[in-house]
Amino acid sequence: MTGEAEGPERRFEFDDLTGAVAPGSVDAEPDAGFRDTVRRLLDPGSGRRSLHWGRSYLYEARWRLAAQEAETAVVVKQFRHDDLRARLRRRRRGSRARLSFRAARRLRRLGIPTPEPLLYAESNSIGGPAWYVCRLVPEALELRYVLRALNAGTAAGQFPGIHAPTLLRRVGALAAELHRHGVWFRDLTSGNVLLSEPTTDAELFLVDLNRARFRRRLSTSQRLRDLSRMPVLRPEDRAEYLAGYRPAGLPRLQRIWFEICHRGFRFKLGSKQGARRGLRRLADLLLPRRRAHPHVPDAERGATATERTVWDPLTDQPHQQATRGQRLGVRLRDAGHHARPLLRSAIPLLRSLAEARSARRALDRAPTPVPFGGLGVAVGPGSAPVASLAGAIDDLRVDTVLLRFHLWRGVDPGLLELAQTLRRRERPVDLVFQFSQDRSLVRDAGLWRRRVEEAAAALAPCGRRFLIGQAPNRSKWGVWRPGDYWSLLAAGAAAVRAQCPDACVLAPAVIDFEPHATAGLIHSGLPERRFDILASQLYVDRRGAPENRQLGFDLAGKLAVLRSLARRAPDCASGRSWVTEFNWPLAEGPHAPAGRDVAVDEDAQASYLVRYALEALGSGLAERVYWWQLAAAGYGLLDPRGDGLRQRPAYLALRQLQRELAGAEVLRLRMPSGLRGYRALREEREIRIVWAPGGRGRPYSPQRAVRAVRDRDGRDLERVPAVLGGAPVYFECETRAPA
């Protein structure tokens, strides 16, 4: 894989893109079909899976190369040039995509291994993105994971097929080969070396080539600075690494120089993270536009701060282009509109907070058994084919589904068909219909009412529960003042009840744990703003695990606050409280609805889902909870990219939770320090679900005889685990009569 086809690169130029393709990648000169292929490749929405999400975004795609019948797996790396330093560098040397493409071709001509370069493209605007496309190395393993395990002393267990000293010598020899050819790599770190497989003899590939410089001869300083970037922390491992670079070893002065460079580089990495975070916050406050992924369009030129919202199709939500400073200016101007609801609800809010603390303490002292039910999923428009969604809902055995309609686009025919399909099934499914708004519907009250009437008339035969509005405490959804939402609620509730007299209305769908915002919106006392059930989009992802605290409350405490607010609020007729959205975003680049700081991997997402559902429904503090959403690239239970719908671990975890606990009576258990657990009784079966919230291994010995043990996803375990971690484990125990 190190040979490179001879011949010049083939240039192409579109209206907004220029670039080049490697010889042999296309049959003839680039044409209209090639243009469509390139645009599809460069669209992150066409990616089959995310490979890396950092300053650059990498994803896997498919491309039918010249003289090949089947499509080839390729990697697309998207570079951004949206800061001053990146733009100046691009003016001086060209885009990083172009540099990567030409460096890769040159390295392969020298016989140095790197994935085959296929194409690069760059925006015509200096601040626009650029893309580099190369062939995918199947099942590649980054050297960083091997070195992390080696530094932690766990490499032998994690990578039994790798003999670390030999691999380190091979990496050192690769660095020596680079320097022998006059290549100053300048970013020779463990993340930029790939292993074709987790074995000692695996082929090594160099990636991330845009910083490489080609010289006739490298200085000692350049060579040692290159070598020092590899994070080989243990002295004995560094000795092997340097022995591969120079079998006789570095001269004494060079070895001292290397150690100084190595320690300095480690210090530089640690200090840059905090500085970057602070500068990013300052930029968000002052710069005229917030940073976004390149696919997100700019707001209309000359738009005011309240109108600078655009739709992001990959996260299925609006993106606020107004800076924090611009939004702060609007908030200060509207301070009076916000102050009055807050003052009106201040005393009820304080009483609810105190009552919630008392209820939370009582839950620990004397937990009571509650029926386990109300776990549901939510579905948005255009997420997947209707038949696939309906089949997944049946497979999960959930009894309640929320369908979100974006009414500025009218009644989505796919969601309407799904509602009709679910109502025709033998197994009953309770449906909730959410009507979401954008800024145009907030501005035009008449249009909002007509859209709600149309939707309610079409959906009334399928269900009677309607959630009015979406996240009124987030300006990106078009609501800037409490009065904006109250107008939506009054008109929407009236329209729904006109079409369905026995309708059950939910409101206000405040997102995240902001009790002051919830309290301010539900204490108007006016009959036209009255609703039946308090709906909350209680995301706790920014705090990590669901048990973590915010404002002094863990998840159960937050739910106790919301339940108390619902019971005290004059606008809430029943005093009931539902969570209509929760999830944890995945590290899926532009598909993730939140930033990298709160993203988790798929395994953690699955564990958090089960723990959230148990804490919410097992405590009796929430009547229902809904996962948002069933199929989505950045956070869903099903991944719709690629061929079919891939079941994520969270899907398997929710399905197993339903199979174990649906219809059961659940009781929170008093557990040893560091453990959480619930007991479920159903059909003379006792199931105990136990986990360690901190993620650290905790020993656990069930007091009852154990019939069977199953992991979070339903796999049978041969024996009781010696220690428990963050993934819940199901213990099927011998039953006995209650004392």
Commentary on this structure:
The chain has 20 helices and 33 strands. With 739 residues, it is of the alpha+beta class. The strands form eight sheets. An eight-stranded parallel β-barrel has the order 16-17-18-19-20-21-22-23, surrounded by six helices. It is 37% helix and 21% strand. The relative contact order is 0.07. A hairpin with a 2-residue loop joins strand 27 (676-682) and strand 28 (685-691). The model has no long low-confidence stretch (mean pLDDT 91).
Number of beta strands: 33
List low-pLDDT spans.
none
- Describe the global form: globular
If strands are numbered along the chain, what order do they take across the biggest sheet?
16-17-18-19-20-21-22-23
Structural class: alpha+beta
Fraction in helix = 25-40%
- Beta fraction of the residues? 15-25%
SSE diagram, text form:
Elements: E1 10-13, E2 17-21, H1 32-41, E3 49-53, E4 57-63, E5 72-79, H2 84-93, H3 96-109, E6 117-123, E7 130-135, E8 141-142, H4 143-152, H5 155-158, H6 164-180, E9 183-184, E10 193-195, E11 204-206, E12 213-214, H7 220-228, H8 235-245, H9 252-286, E13 309-312, E14 317-320, H10 324-333, H11 335-365, E15 370-371, E16 375-379, H12 386-396, E17 400-406, H13 413-424, E18 430-436, H14 439-443, H15 445-459, E19 465-468, H16 482-499, E20 504-511, H17 515-521, E21 531-537, H18 555-568, E22 572-582, H19 602-617, E23 624-628, E24 638-639, E25 646-647, H20 649-661, E26 665-668, E27 676-682, E28 685-691, E29 698-699, E30 706-710, E31 716-717, E32 723-724, E33 729-733
Parallel strand pairs: 16-17, 16-23, 17-18, 18-19, 19-20, 20-21, 21-22, 22-23
Antiparallel strand pairs: 1-2, 2-6, 3-4, 4-5, 5-7, 6-7, 8-10, 9-12, 10-11, 13-14, 15-26, 24-25, 26-27, 27-28, 28-33, 29-32, 30-31, 30-33
Helix pairs in contact: 6-8, 7-9, 11-17, 11-18, 12-13, 15-16, 19-20
